[in-house]
Design goal:
Number of strands: 9
Number of domains: 3
Strand content: 15-25%
Distance between the termini: 61 Å
Number of helices: 5
Strand order of the largest sheet: 1-2-3-4
CATH topology of the largest domain: Homing Intron 3 (I-Ppo) Encoded Endonuclease, Chain A
CATH class of the largest domain: Alpha Beta
Helix content: 25-40%
Largest sheet: 4 strands, antiparallel
Radius of gyration: 22 Å
Length: 170
């Protein structure tokens, strides 16, 4: 693939990105150093006014594929987060991204964080067990308010659609 360069939107005249996933500083006349962020993606920092950090795969996709709609992500087709060539990238929905990760083996249903190990968990297993114990005495709305979750979450816990582990804590 012949390397092509395009200006980065909002940084025209300062930085460019290539279809091979490299970033060029027009002012310094250098290929910029990239680092791997904690999520495993190659990243770069721009210094125009305020310092701002970007992941390279998103810069490549925006320059060569197009805008990334809200609730969509840039997917690495081969599953390698550091392969930022434009022919390895696609813009897909978050649910398509999860299905892709499952399909190519980056994720399986057994290693998806569940319960209090999930990044967005509000409750703990102990609180879920308390909710089941308190159900006869309170409405779902009251329990939702008490535990800071929606009443539909309370219903899911009571009917063991979520937090359905047999682990007894209380």
């Amino acid at each position: 693939m012949k390397e092509e360069w395009k200006d980065i939107q909002g940084y025209e005249g300062y930085y460019q990105v290539s279809n091979r996933g490299r970033v060029y500083s027009i002012r310094s006349k250098i290929i910029m150093s990239l680092w791997t962020c904690s999520w495993g993606y190659k990243s770069v920092a721009f210094h125009v006014g305020k310092k701002k950090t970007f992941t390279v795969h998103r810069l490549v996709a925006m320059a060569f594929i197009g805008d990334i709609p809200p609730k969509y992500v840039v997917n690495h087709k081969d599953g390698i987060k550091t392969n930022n060539r434009v022919d390895n990238l696609e813009i897909i929905s978050k649910s398509e991204d999860v299905l892709h990760a499952l399909r190519i083996g980056l994720m399986n249903r057994d290693n998806v964080p569940k319960g209090e190990n999930h990044n967005f968990a509000i409750l703990t297993q102990k609180k879920a067990n308390e909710i089941r114990i308190l159900k006869p005495y309170y409405t779902q709305k009251e329990l939702g308010k008490k535990y800071g979750v929606h009443e539909s979450t309370i219903s899911d816990i009571i009917h063991k659609r979520t937090w359905n582990y047999e682990k007894k804590i209380c």
